[in-house]
């Protein structure tokens, strides 16, 4: 199956090469020329492994042995046998995506991506090693490290801002095992680390380092990260069917705590494949660019970035939105124009017709830190469900959506992280607490709620730091050239 750039119909490549390239050469994102066809009823009867193989395979038909790759990606790595279980909490259904090796939803995609990259590399006869470079504000780095550790033919180097991630997140990365991993703290903030990575890509000749590695990234613009995320929408629907909460064909709404628009776009793709999805509710924190966009059609990043208690959603430019604009309009020159305007002037306005199409499928809402904390407390008191700060944002917006629209179709809220990944904020939503260590707060939260701490987070505190280097921005390139 062929893919082309969102900015140019003629920039075409097959699905294996699209995974290897990540970004199209013109800076656009890869979209399928025609969406895959799927026997939805048959897929909904499968177990989650077969389901994943069928769905990912339908997007990436040029990558062989998908069943085997799915096995290697997930078997034994998730604490839930069905990978992404659903839980009923009051009149919401929570889709738990955090049972992977790092307790964040990014595991679902980042366990699979290394398998896809390795297979695509073999398929294309690519000889050199791939070097994955990632700048992280916390969650992505650890999930990528776990996904790529000890994968043959691939190395990974993660940069995080020194002093700019939580104590738990730092410990998770500093203790990372694996013979192919490098973890470096960079003096500066997340933007410095990210700019440093971009500079490396711009500087390294032909994408080959002096060490002979081909540079690549693990960020969510890669179609190999998006495709695995489509699976859990089907899985949630199948769960509701099995529980008798819905009949085949009934529409289900999904509310997604959103940053880069990857997760929610996967929901839109699920709908395009034929899953009966009703409304996709896009939940933002105080960085509510997307709420404004969905309500008015004006995308405007000219505003300050707020640091919130849901840091994985602290984003002003949601890259995957470009894919939605293309899929709805099928107008590559228009998309190219909008992206150029965003780049140069910091905003764009979509045509009225496209806005109507977006509003027919999506609803946007937002919730600030105070609202998220209130929701954590209320949800726990009323339903006994303990959610993290990102999930709380989704929960609050899902309730707003119901109250404002009266749409009472079943609502699934995507739960994107374990509450123990953000123990300080979650605990402070439940009780007054002092300036103790984050790990102490984890324990206190456990005592207070009785909710089990995921083993990977409970044990990390006692692991030995293996990566302690702190480097300057200027040293980043040198370190990469040596890998
Ligand atoms: C990355 C992340 C999100 C946002 O997902 P996008 O695909 O970027 O929209 C939400 N919650 C958590 C915990 C995340 O790590």
Can you put this structure into words, describing what you see?
The chain is α/β, with parallel strands linked by helices. The protein has a domain at 86-103 and 225-425: Rossmann fold (3-Layer(aba) Sandwich). Helix content is 45%, strand content 16%. Helix 7 links the parallel strand 6 and strand 7. Pyridoxal-5'-phosphate is lined by residues 104-106, 139, 220, 257-263, 312-313, 390, 416-417.
| Derived structural class | alpha/beta
Q: Total strand count, please?
A: 16
| Tally of individual helices | 21
Q: How far apart lie the N and C ends?
A: 34 Å
What's the arrangement of strands in the largest beta sheet?
4-5-15-10-11-14
* Cα shape: globular
CATH class of the domain at 86-103 and 225-425: Alpha Beta
Mean pLDDT: 95
CATH fold group of the domain at 86-103 and 225-425 = Rossmann fold
Largest sheet: 6 strands, mixed
User: Radius of gyration from the CA trace?
Assistant: 21 Å
Q: Segments where pLDDT lies below 50 for 5+ residues?
A: none
Q: Architecture of the domain at 86-103 and 225-425, CATH level 2?
A: 3-Layer(aba) Sandwich
Fraction of residues in H or I helices:
40-55%
Cofactors and ligands: pyridoxal-5'-phosphate
How much of the polypeptide forms β-strand, as a percent range? Answer: 15-25%
What descriptors fit this protein?
45% helix; 483 residues; alpha/beta; 21 helices; globular; six-stranded mixed sheet; five-stranded parallel sheet; Rossmann fold
Write a compact overview of the structure shown.
This protein has 483 residues and is of the alpha/beta class. It is 45% helix and 16% strand.
